[in-house]
């Protein structure tokens, strides 16, 4: 009896300890209408298994940029398999984390001391969110004798920090272009947008005009159609029954991007490094965009439209209901539902004839807290070398290595055989945004979020005083920059 | 003369102090042993982290890799200069002004209806009203996000069908987002409703009989019998609702990916605290914000408890 009691008590104590360690210290509140439930954290799609015997495990974190879509994972896993089978010293494992939560997940991992070894592919934005946490590759490059001449020197220099450290190596470049639906142009009796930079656009009446944002606006209005078939230039056009829109910035609605495309590369931080500024060209670009959504002749879908299932639940161009989209070339990762009649055109100029475009550039970065820098560098070399073309095929990027361009082009032509003008992408390499729309500023993540708040206002509020909002933004940014000093 | 050894003779009554003290000690020991897992958990997962965040709030600890240094009260000074802190608190208060009354009155109203003598199939209704509470909350948020879509959501489609020409832009308007969040939270009222129902069923019926005899109608009974008798439960729900509102986080995080959209209207204080920790990676400042939240919630709770003596009636109390 005593033994039974002792056993029962011991089991009870162990169970109680397990419950106490998992339970909150206060009783769970009831859930009135405004009540709270415990947050449910998103888990990575693939968790890292234990390392195989004798191999050094290198963890690769995917999700800060592209790469975590379901249709991209198999190709990456194939690259991982190929790497692991090619040698027996290193075991590469990947964690695929949805982009929406990747920054938070990675920050949690780093804070808890369990950060990955390599992150990527990651562009400037994702990299800036973890500014100062990347390994300087210079000693590894020198020790390995890695040949940097295979890359354009300008691209190599892009990844040098202000302190002179080489924090990354070129991998993929994604110039922006105009994606357009040829069938919609055919239906409207319009010529397609220009295929080469410098070409004019030919209007339906045969006149030649500059291919600029005014021309694009005019075309977009003609291509915006309501349920009765009237377009936005017609008096009988019903803006409440639009079934097809003329234009969208596809996943490029952050005001930094729109400002760059329409107003030219600039920064919200003045050259003195301390003062917040709102470039006039950016403010004018934001006004053009807001007017395009909410004006008397709308031709750009608003926020609710973009989020609706009928318009692709956020991926509007792929809904097949948008005539033109401006987006970097990584968008080919996610364009499967857009049909087989889209093609590529060059970016329009501003009123002065200058092309303001963007180039996203992705790479893989090694975190400075990695316990295996040499092995991580071996993986990095493979990902940007032997494995790069397979990865670029799913990421939608152009190879930074010029020797690989022809092979990349062949892959794209096989993937999208109806597209005739890949040159629009490659020609875009001549029009980078310097400084990048995602360039580092102090407290970058907080600045990015604050500017994003303006984005959500613009896509959702018709009656918006943009001048007042810009002034408020500038004041808030100044407070953020001041806090960083 | 027979000698009765001490050993053979029955023991005399024990002295109260000696025996009961040992018994009390043994009972206390078992008590502490049983609550030790909870104490250990409390120490490891609550008290020690609480002290750690307090210490952290006086440093500049972040993820950027620069060394951690003691910075005095500069984080607290920054707290008062940070416009986003006050903006987020205002967002929280603005939401609470709508959500709190709805979160108390609606479940109470449903409980009153369910407690009605003339209602048939009470068990069925109780189940139906409680059922949404067990739906996983994150899944419910996604469902409501689709329902509340201003263009294609069922709610606005219904409103258009009944003749509302411009139904609200629920999730994307800085004005309508708060009612939208309250509507979204309605799925969670089942739990509060059950608590109210249980308290209503505990009100002695003779009080209603006496009130009827005195001529009290329905409203009279409600305000003079029902509400005073269930005031402890109202107080309990009010306290926990307020705490929950100040910690409101999951819905804006899932609904708008923590962006605070539209236009910062859902950047609740707890969400901003989370982003400060994990997105902006400023752990020390986040710890400071956490302590401000603690002070605010403590102050509100103390005020509630102080005012409770004026309106909460405990039947066991004697005045």
Automatic annotation (TrEMBL), chain A:
From the UniProt annotation, give the residues forming the signal peptide.
1-22
Per its UniProt record, what InterPro entries does this chain match? Bact_solute-bd_prot1, SBP
Q: List, as start-end ranges, the regions of compositional bias called Low complexity.
A: 31-46
In which compartments does the protein localize?
Cell envelope
- Pfam families hit by this protein: SBP_bac_1
Q: Which UniProt keywords apply?
A: Signal, Transport
Entry GO CC: cell envelope
Do the record's keywords include Transport? yes
Q: Where is this region: Disordered?
A: 26-46
Listed PROSITE patterns = PROKAR_LIPOPROTEIN
> Hey, which family's this protein in?
Belongs to the bacterial solute-binding protein 1 family.
Q: What is the protein name stated in its UniProt record?
A: Extracellular solute-binding protein
**Native organism:** Caldilinea aerophila
Ranked from the top, the taxonomy reads: Bacteria, Bacillati, Chloroflexota, Caldilineae, Caldilineales
Automatic annotation (TrEMBL), chain B:
Question: Could you tell me which residue ranges the ABC transmembrane type-1 domain spans?
Answer: 89-304
User: Where in the cell is the protein located?
Assistant: Cell membrane
* TM region positions: 30-55, 95-115, 127-147, 176-198, 229-249, 283-305
Return one Gene Ontology term, BP aspect: transmembrane transport
Q: Which InterPro entries match?
A: ABC_transporter_permease, MetI-like, MetI-like_sf
- Please verify whether the record's keywords include Transmembrane helix: yes
Its record classes its membrane topology as: Multi-pass membrane protein
Q: GO CC annotations?
A: plasma membrane
Superkingdom is: Bacteria
Task: Name the keywords, alphabetized.
Answer: Cell membrane, Membrane, Transmembrane, Transmembrane helix, Transport
Q: Where is this region: Disordered?
A: 1-20
Family membership noted in the UniProt record: Belongs to the binding-protein-dependent transport system permease family.
Q: What is this protein called in UniProt? A: Sugar ABC transporter permease
């Amino acid at each position: 009896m005593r033994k039974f009691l002792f056993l029962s008590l011991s089991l009870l104590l162990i169970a109680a300890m397990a419950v106490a360690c998992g339970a909150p210290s206060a009783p769970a509140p009831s859930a009135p209408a405004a009540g709270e439930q415990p947050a449910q954290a998103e888990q990575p799609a693939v968790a890292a298994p234990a390392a195989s015997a004798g191999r050094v495990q290198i963890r690769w974190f995917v999700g800060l940029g592209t790469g975590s879509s379901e249709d991209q994972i198999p190709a990456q896993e194939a690259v991982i398999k190929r790497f692991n089978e090619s040698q027996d010293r290193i075991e590469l494992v990947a964690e695929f984390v949805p982009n929406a939560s990747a920054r938070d997940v990675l920050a949690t991992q780093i804070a808890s001391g369990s950060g990955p070894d390599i992150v990527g592919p990651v562009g400037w934005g994702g990299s800036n969110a973890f500014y100062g946490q990347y390994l300087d590759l210079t000693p590894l490059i020198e020790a390995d004798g890695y040949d940097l001449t295979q890359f354009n020197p300008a691209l190599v220099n892009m990844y040098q920090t202000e302190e002179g450290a080489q924090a990354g190596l070129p991998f993929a470049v994604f110039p922006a272009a105009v994606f357009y639906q040829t069938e919609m142009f055919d239906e409207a009796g319009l010529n397609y947008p220009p295929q080469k930079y410098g070409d004019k656009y030919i209007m339906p009446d045969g006149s030649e005009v500059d291919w600029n944002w005014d021309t694009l606006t005019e075309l977009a209005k003609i291509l915006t159609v309501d349920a009765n078939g009237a377009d936005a230039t017609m008096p009988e056009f019903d803006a409440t029954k639009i079934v097809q829109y003329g234009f969208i910035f596809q996943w490029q609605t952050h005001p930094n991007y729109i400002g760059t495309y329409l107003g030219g590369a600039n920064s919200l931080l003045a050259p003195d490094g301390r003062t917040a500024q709102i470039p006039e060209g950016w403010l004018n670009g934001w006004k053009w965009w807001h007017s395009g959504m909410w004006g008397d002749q709308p031709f750009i879908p608003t926020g609710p439209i973009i989020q609706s299932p009928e318009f692709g639940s956020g991926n509007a161009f792929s809904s097949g209901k948008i005539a033109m989209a401006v987006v970097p070339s990584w968008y080919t990762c996610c364009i499967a539902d857009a049909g087989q009649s889209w093609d590529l055109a060059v970016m329009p100029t501003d009123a002065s004839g200058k092309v303001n475009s963007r180039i996203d550039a992705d790479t893989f970065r090694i975190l400075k807290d990695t316990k295996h820098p040499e092995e991580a560098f071996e993986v990095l070399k493979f990902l940007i070398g032997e494995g790069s073309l397979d990865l670029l095929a799913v990421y939608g990027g152009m190879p930074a290595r010029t020797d690989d361009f022809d092979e990349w082009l062949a892959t794209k032509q096989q993937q999208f055989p109806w597209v005739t003008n890949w040159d629009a992408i490659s020609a875009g390499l001549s029009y980078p945004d310097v400084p990048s729309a995602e360039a580092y500023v102090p407290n970058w993540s907080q600045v990015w979020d604050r500017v994003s708040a303006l984005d959500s206002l613009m896509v959702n509020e018709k009656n918006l005083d943009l001048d007042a909002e810009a002034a408020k933004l500038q004041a808030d940014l100044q407070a953020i920059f001041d806090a960083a000093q | 003369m027979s000698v009765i050894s001490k050993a053979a003779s029955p023991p005399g009554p024990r002295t109260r102090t000696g025996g009961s003290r040992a018994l009390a000690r043994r009972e206390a020991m078992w008590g502490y042993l049983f609550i030790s897992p909870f104490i250990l958990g409390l120490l490891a997962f609550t008290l020690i982290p609480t002290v750690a965040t307090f210490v952290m709030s006086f440093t500049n600890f972040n993820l950027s890799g620069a060394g951690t240094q003691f910075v005095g009260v500069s984080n607290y000074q920054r707290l008062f200069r940070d416009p986003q802190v006050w903006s987020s608190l205002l967002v929280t208060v603005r939401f609470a002004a709508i959500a709190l009354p709805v979160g108390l009155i609606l479940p109470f109203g449903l409980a009153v209806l369910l407690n009605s003598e003339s209602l048939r199939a009470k068990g069925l209704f109780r189940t139906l009203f409680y059922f949404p509470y067990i739906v996983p909350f994150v899944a419910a948020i996604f469902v409501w996000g689709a329902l509340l879509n201003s263009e294609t959501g069922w709610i606005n489609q219904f409103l258009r069908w009944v003749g509302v020409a411009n139904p609200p832009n629920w999730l994307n308007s800085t004005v309508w987002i708060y009612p939208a969040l309250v509507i979204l939270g309605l799925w969670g009222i089942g739990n509060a409703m059950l608590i109210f129902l249980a308290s209503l069923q505990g009100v002695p019926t003779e009080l209603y009989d006496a009130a009827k005899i005195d001529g009290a109608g329905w409203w009279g009974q409600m305000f003079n019998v029902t509400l005073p008798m269930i005031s402890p439960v109202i107080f309990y729900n009010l306290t926990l609702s307020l705490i929950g509102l100040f910690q409101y986080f999951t819905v804006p995080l899932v609904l708008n990916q923590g962006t605070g959209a539209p236009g910062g209207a859902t950047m609740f204080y707890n969400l901003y605290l989370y982003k400060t920790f994990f997105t902006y990676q400023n752990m020390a400042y986040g710890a400071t914000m956490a302590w401000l939240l603690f002070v605010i919630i403590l102050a509100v709770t103390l005020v509630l408890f102080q005012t409770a003596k004026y309106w909460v009636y405990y039947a066991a109390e004697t005045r």
